[in-house]
Design brief:
By secondary structure, this protein is mainly alpha-helical. The chain contains eleven helices and no strands. It is elongated.
Length: 172
């Protein structure tokens, strides 16, 4: 019985306005704004996207900002460092996934710290990430010791290629 919600007319907006809509509560608005930024290859919005990724906007908005930086080809290790320390576990989880192909010594250290993350989904993602990133074998072993009884994390640990777990789970 209420009035229908009015949606913003995104097609008439500028790329900077689309960035602001990445934090919208409505998933359609967020997704459409991200699609428009991607289609236009709006790399000039990178500073605004970085501000959004570190803002107090809803976690979905921060994730859209990170993902948009990635698809525009301007995602930097510093963006991921901030995201790996985000208060929301979903942002930390996705930052791990994004960091897999952009690893630096600082990112490696920050990722390894997530083996002690209080959120199981973050440790689950690290169990998938650690075998494909050189230098995370100790984090992998810490998760194995801590979470071996968790069926999902255990499955993730055992899904690693044999070369990645030899010497870690099964010492020589």
């Amino acid at each position: 019985g209420g009035a229908p919600r009015r949606f913003p007319r995104l097609s008439a907006m500028t790329p900077d306005q689309w960035v602001r809509h990445l934090g919208d509560p409505n998933p359609w608005v967020r997704g459409t704004a991200q699609r428009l930024l991607h289609e236009r290859q709006a790399r000039e919005t990178a500073p605004a996207l970085r501000r959004l990724a570190t803002s107090k906007v809803r976690p979905e908005g921060r994730l859209h900002a990170l993902a948009t930086l990635r698809v525009l080809g301007v995602l930097q290790p510093a963006d991921l460092m901030t995201a790996l320390a985000d208060p929301h576990p979903g942002v930390r989880e996705n930052a791990l996934r994004l960091a897999e192909t952009r690893i630096t010594p600082a990112l490696l250290s920050a990722a390894a710290e997530l083996a002690a993350d209080p959120e199981p989904k973050v440790r689950l993602q690290l169990a998938f990430t650690a075998p494909v990133v050189a230098g995370l074998s100790e984090a992998y072993a810490r998760i194995a010791r801590r979470d071996h009884a968790d069926k999902w994390i255990s499955a993730a640990l055992l899904s690693a290629p044999p070369a990645a777990i030899n010497g870690v789970l099964f010492p020589a």
